[in-house]
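ASSEMBLY PREDICTION REQUEST
Request ID: AP-0331
Submitted by: J.K., bench scientist
Number of chains: two
Total residues: 531
Priority: normal
Notes: Please return the full assembly, not individual chains.
Input sequences:
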Amino acid sequence: MDVGTALIAQSHRVDLSPTTAIVWALWLLVGFAGIFPGIVAYMVWLERKVAARFQDRIGPNRVGPFGLLQPIADAIKLIVKESIVPRPADGLVHLLAPVIVLASAFLTLAVVPFAVGLVPIDPPSGLVYLIAVSSLSPLGIFLAGWSSRNKYSLIGAMRAVAQLVSYEIPQVLATIPVVLWAGSLSLVSIFDHQAKFGWNAFTPPGLLAFAIFLIAGVAEVNRTPFDIPEAESEIIAGYHTEYSGMRFGLFFLAEYLGVFAISCVATVLFLGGGMPLPFSSFPVNLIDGSVGSYILADAILLAVFLAKVLLFIFAMFWVRATLPRMRIDRLMNFAWKYLVPLCVLNILFAAAWFEVVVRPGRIEAGRWAVGMIGVGLLTAAGVQLVFWANRKLAAAAPIDADWPAVGAARGG
Amino acid sequence: MVAHNYVFVGLLLLVAVGFALAPLALVALVAPRKRSPTKADVFECGVRTHGETWVRFRIQYYIYAIMFVVFDVETVFLYPWAAAYGSLGTFALVEMTVFLALLFAGLAYAWAKGVLRWA
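STATUS: Completed
Returned structure:
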């Protein structure tokens, strides 16, 4: 059995035959221990370049052409730095915390279908697995803040946990429309569904869910404007204040791996994975069983997949360069008072879309148009309703009442 | 067959932990180690730390955590419903609408009680 056929077989039927063992070893040693960290290292370089351009600077350009060797220089520097652990800290927990955060980011990538057959594992409960392992990272972050025995670390950790658990709810609820339409929790089935019915982001409830998922995703990886857990202007560096050298490097790696993972998951759930056209199963229908067609289709899928992921990553860098940090009360309000009600309503809109468009088993132009207009108006009305209700409630209890200092500063 | 998926997860966990621990081991070999009392102090902007750090924290955080647990359990109920929706029919939609209404009532109650107010 050649490698191509083995990969196809591996995505559908998992056994512990020697070929599967080879495929798994390739995934673990080449993919997870080689390619993914490599991608992440160059994401850091890209962010420094992009952020520099946004600020009218040049960015790293000394180490190698265009500063391309910068990640290697950074890695060497991190390795030869002393790891300082504060005397009163809990040593073992201090050591384990970054390991847990990094492991969580690694495990998330295990269910991502990069192309047909190019998926490490495809458990029937893929999304539940995804949510379970991504919930591990708040634990590691909290342990980091608590074990450091530093007041700023502790404040950062508490903020991180409050924020992460709050934004996890809309993030999880936003995936329910996708599950409902595909009729499965497996990410491969969700990909297959989109090959048949078009990308999920091109439906009204799907677009709303996509937007919510992205916002919550940025919050889940602690990036601006949701980076209060490590707000350097108020609490030094938050939960990783007491981390230096390689131990800090692990947190850094985990953050960027998290950005990569969330971009991959968003691409699979809402943007049709590696498919280049929204309403066509284009490269997938090339596969006729021969290894050549399979390699051609997967090359296209993988290239488009990575391009979409890069787009997401760039968008996150762009947001970071553009938006200021949110205040903590507004940040929590936004999750509970806007995103959660919207998600709950969106589940009903998703059910309506299922009845109108997905139920017949294939796209029918008439029903699709009715769905786009009908469910579209319904979804827009839902968004308006939530924002209107929030404006009314906020007007009844102005936020300055909670924050006298803010009112005083405004001269009120 | 399905159980073998989680064999891979176990192996991946080992790889991930190894990937994290290997550079730390390397650091232990090559990085300098010069301990000093000042360096090992807790870093709080250069000011000597004052009082106990591991204190009881404000209750607001725990209330959010409780809200999280409630809603997280709800989503566990929603997933199987969503996955089986196609074969369940209209009655399941009505039932889930009632369930979502109850869920929403819970959120509205917490909201009205001021649980969602950060102050």
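REVIEWER COMMENTS: Residues 167 and 216 of chain A are 5 Å apart (CA to CA).
SIGN-OFF: pending second reviewer
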